[in-house]
Amino acid sequence: MENSLKQIADRLRRAKSVAIFSHMNPDGDAIGSALALSRALESLGVTTQVCVESDLPSNLQFVEGLEKITKKPSSAYDLLVCVDCSEAQRLGALSEEFFFAKRKKIDTVCIDHHVSNHGFCTYDFVQTCAANCMHIATLIAYMGAPFDKKTAEYLLLGLLTDSGNFSHDDVDEACFLLGAKLVKAGADICKLNYELFKKQPKQRAKLFGKVMGGIRYYHEGKFAAIVISKQLMDECGADPSMTEGFVDFPLNVDGVEVAASLMEYKKGQWKISLRTKTYAEANKIAGVYGGGGHVRAAGCMLFGDVEEALDKLSYTVYQYLE
Ligand code: 5GP
Ligand code: MN
């Protein structure tokens, strides 16, 4: 059932104890959405627990309050909220807990911005926009909770992450208006910019050089792919979370419409990140392999050796090129 954020705000205010879940391999929008909502609810006297199944990425270790996030709930709750999550499977190991809650008739709420989300909770609010934190900001305002510096900084973390620092093609007036409001509330945009888009460990810089030296082009240069093997990561002392943003580099090469990174997640299992520049629909390409996401950014998993994975992907991408 599609609900308004106002109705959801009322439902949240009536809760006593809320569990907030977000997607596996969380990014700044997932973590920002969850922590901002948690803080707002606590300020209204509602207890919360925030859960994400995965280890938190190394580039987000600077975020204050990460210790609040656990891998699963440790106590009972009477409402379960999923933020920035397009389907139950994206919760990873937490999907079991989610279905358990549903069986126990605990109300579930989804607040999301992915085009591939068709609703999976008791109350769903799904509307595409640049970042899910924009919905959370509206929700917090409806709840009547304060916009303090810390809440504003969580929301700005999400807004900057998912809007590509106010650069993606879904960035609109609302993004800038919210950005202005958050900066006014005290969020440190300069610090966030540095932490999210500039700062990097030496291992990442080294890996970046090696990976970009091997960009592969297909279909007259309209499709570019990079391969981030486990072996390369080990050679550089890097971990998967250090590859955030790598796929933007091949995308920005002149003439490229679709870019993909293939990151070796486990032996024979590749985490695919897809980005498109102007017309190809990334969510549809990822959807062929059971994944999803947004029109310009999506992801899925592929299985097999790297050449098999690349063959499959380049064949599929070809169907979506003009
Ligand atoms: P990234 O490439 O940065 O990991 O993800 C880009 C976008 O695609 C994100 O919005 C993310 O939620 C979505 N996405 C990434 N991997 C998957 C996947 O395996 N399944 C689905 N449904 N969405 C994904
Ligand atoms: Mn998001």
Question: How many separate helices?
Answer: 12
Approximately what portion of the residues adopt beta-strand conformation? 15-25%
Q: CATH superfamily of the largest domain, please?
A: inorganic pyrophosphatase (n-terminal core)
Return the domain count.
2
Bin the helical content: 25-40%
Radius of gyration computed on alpha carbons: 19 Å
* Shape summary: globular
**CATH class value of the largest domain:** Alpha Beta
Give the helix/strand class. alpha/beta
Specify the biggest β-sheet. 6 strands, parallel
Q: Which ligands occur here?
A: guanosine-5'-monophosphate, manganese (II) ion
Number of strands: 12
Q: If classified by CATH, what would the architecture of the largest domain be? A: Alpha-Beta Complex
Average pLDDT figure? 97
Strand order of the largest sheet: 3-2-1-4-5-6
Uncertain runs: none
CATH topology of the largest domain: inorganic pyrophosphatase (n-terminal core)
H-E order: HEHEEEHEEHHHHHEEHHEEHEEH
Amino- and carboxy-terminal Cα gap: 37 Å
Which features would summarize this protein structure in a list?
322 residues; alpha/beta; inorganic pyrophosphatase (n-terminal core); Diaminopimelate Epimerase, Chain A, domain 1; 2 domains; six-stranded parallel β-sheet; six-stranded mixed β-sheet; 12 helices; globular; binds guanosine-5'-monophosphate; binds manganese (II) ion
